[in-house]
Write a structure and sequence with these properties.
nine-stranded mixed sheet; alpha/beta; three-stranded antiparallel sheet; single chain; 427 residues; Rossmann fold; globular; 44% helix
Amino acid sequence: MNCKKSRDICKTFNMAFRKRNIAISQIVSNRDSQTDTDSTEKDRLADVTRTVPIAKLPSGVKLSSLSSQPITSTGSASLDSYLGGHGGILLGSSILVEETGPTDFAGTLLKLFAAEGVVQGHHVHVVGVPDQWTRELPGIYARSKETSKSSSTDLLKSNESLRDEKMKIAWRYERLNRHSDTDETSKSSAETSEITNPEGAVFCHTFDLAKRLPIAPSSHINTIPIRPDSVSPFTGIVQDLSSRLASTPQSIIHRLVVPSILSPAYYPPSASSPECFLQFLHSLRALSSLHPERLVTFISLPIFLFPRTTGLVRWAEHLVDGVVELNPFPNSSDAMMITSSAADRRELDVQPQGLVTFRKLPGLTERGVSGIAETGDDLSFTLGRKKFQIKPFSLPPLEQEVTADKRANEAAGSNALGSAKKDDLEF
């Protein structure tokens, strides 16, 4: 009887909350029609996804997270991170690297760019330099098994020694050294890690400047010489590059590398005339517009010979998509040659050797504004024995200098008191 009463109560509640003047059969038919429309819409979307295939990106190319444009790596992960927030250089763009000084730090950036192209299977075109330049490309960083085993055993030994020798000052200082060791290991692993794209392939390799990249016979490296006999020394470059772009498939990426353009060591004096140089940059811009997702250009210019105040360099900056300026510190290139001890060389690997200024960055977002990375700090570059890195520049704190001066004064005072006689101290 109780069950029968509960059923009657449920029926009365359902009748109370049901809309009036609507038949039950009509509600059921509406639900069926809604499910039929949902199923037909799902089938239509499934057919669309089956009929429209997703284009596969070439090797070493991924989409920018900022504008969904295809990008490739410059060979330096630190430089990729400052190129407008895209994480790489946009395909179809050109970057001019200016260097204020007789050093060749820009040449290292161009070699990293060319080495990344060789490893990714891109067609690399090098202009104006001899074949020896391509043989000096940096090799891929490879960590040997012996060093990894020795580092792991050293970590285990250090952890065991820390467990045995606990600090007795307070319990919270017990794991102080252990945290610092883990931080150092994490930093070293982060520096040697490679950046991958969403498909799992390596997007940016880690190169070792102390090694040389073995060039396979299947690699595509094209050395374009300068012809000083012609009217313009850049005419042969444009003709060769355009013919190779037309004869290769659309999925092939081409990298144009022009080290030390207008340098008297490689170019005749007529190359610095505006009729030749600016026309060459116009031609490169036209080729990039014809092949917007296939050609990437890196050019270095010694602006200690051609200052930025001249109209030639100003027009060159307008005709390229990105401008990066390297300002080396005085005697930064000779510091590594003077030092002999390994400890001093390790310190120089950490110390900055110049400042980096991004004058212009390539790429537009969907809002139409250039994606300039607002770091808020001055940037510096460090060229060590094995890597090139761009990072924020910061001066050492003043407290260290004050403490160092105090220690020097105390040491000088103690030596003077130790050497003084007892008769001299008596009044």
